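Example 3.2
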Amino acid sequence: MSIWKRKPLHLLLAEAADSEKGLKRTLTAWSLIALGIGAIIGAGLFVRTAMAASQNAGPSVTIAFVVAAIGCALAGLCYAELSSSIPISGSAYTYTYATMGEFLAWIIGWDLILEYAVGAATVGIAWSEYLNNLLVNVLHMSPIPYELSHSPFQTSPDGVQGMINLPALFIVGIISLLLIKGIQESAFVNGIIVIVKVAIVIMIIVIGWNFINPDNHTPYIPPSSIFTDKHGIDHPFGGFWGVIGAAGTVFFAFIGFDAVSTAAQETKNPKRNMPIGILGSLAICTVLYILFAHVLTGVATLEDFRGEGGEASVAFAIQKYMIGYEWLAQLVTVAILAGFSSVILVMLLGQSRVFYAMGKDGLLPKAFSDLHPKYQTPYKANLAILVIVGLFAAFVPGDIVGDMTSIGTLFAFVLVCVAVIILRKKEPNMVREFKTPLVPLIPILGVIACLLMMIGLGWTNWLRLFAWMGLGVIIYFIYGIKNSRLNNPKE
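Structure, written as tokens:
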């Protein structure tokens, strides 16, 4: 047995061709773009924009979005080549298995759990918070009792102890069951959500443009200084490092476009549609982000975002400055709930497809690769993820994970960029419908950009990443290597 054994490319391509016995190919390029937008536009746009502006970059948070988008685009070009050439469920896990061997494939598969499962639970917890906001401020109803909408580790200012976060568990459960019903139905629901929230984002940009105060954009790039937040933490503000720090903060807003690649085996004509889905969703969201950030920082001041406007910043800015459009603040709350819902959907979709691929390879129990006899979806993987993510969402506070999702995603991006270089060397004659330009320059720049953003997340997140990976290594040597189909072909 070898931990460096690679999965032969001909086996991967044979699995892709054998679609009659596998997952149904139902997704078009537009479905993939909608899935990408559904995953990308969510907490990042409505929460991280004001945070990055107030702590790091001021109005130049728009430049930070460009920097983060460039890093994502470099990795996205690599994702597009791999997903169109190896149209198999599993995303970066599958690409790593074909290029760098089983052990690193396990590492990236374990890392993707950090991105998708932990990320979905975190967004589920945020969904619960905004549901209460909707009940109180929009519907003028009583909120869900504190003890039934918070984890046991949380206590309200009035001394009420949380018990279980039922709304977070509810949304995770509903979306998991939707995914079991079928990806085509899930994509349809997601498409409706995407149309609603993108329409509201565009509405804010168009209406808000008339309320921009030019003084709020002067100077556009503030001079270098240090900003100390309410927790006593220092942040580089203004200048070059302020923009770079803001890029690390708003990177969270781009997480999700890579989840499109996990649906490669369920895509019609993946060699054409995967690049369109990945790069198209990224491009559309980048334009919306830049315009949205320009409007938000022009309407409200940095002092607003550092004070009472720090939470629900978009609704705050509308209510305070966009006189006559208070109704738009209520729509924003609806858009945030819809946005969170679609983010959870795509993250759970990505996680189930990674489990499906790892189950087929024997690195996880084979049950995870079982398809529903009627719906042809990996329903056991979805149920297992429902339990894992549901428990986390119900009983753990959202701030525990911090930036773990971001650092896990960036690590996956690094390995995908490296995989393109290795596969070009080892399989030069492989048919590539879409080719990453300027290899190895583009992948190398992608690695550098992602590593810089990882460094910007701080040593504590590196420590958490290493601890999580250490646990994964133990599980691999106890279970994975002994049950691997590649290392045990007779079993």
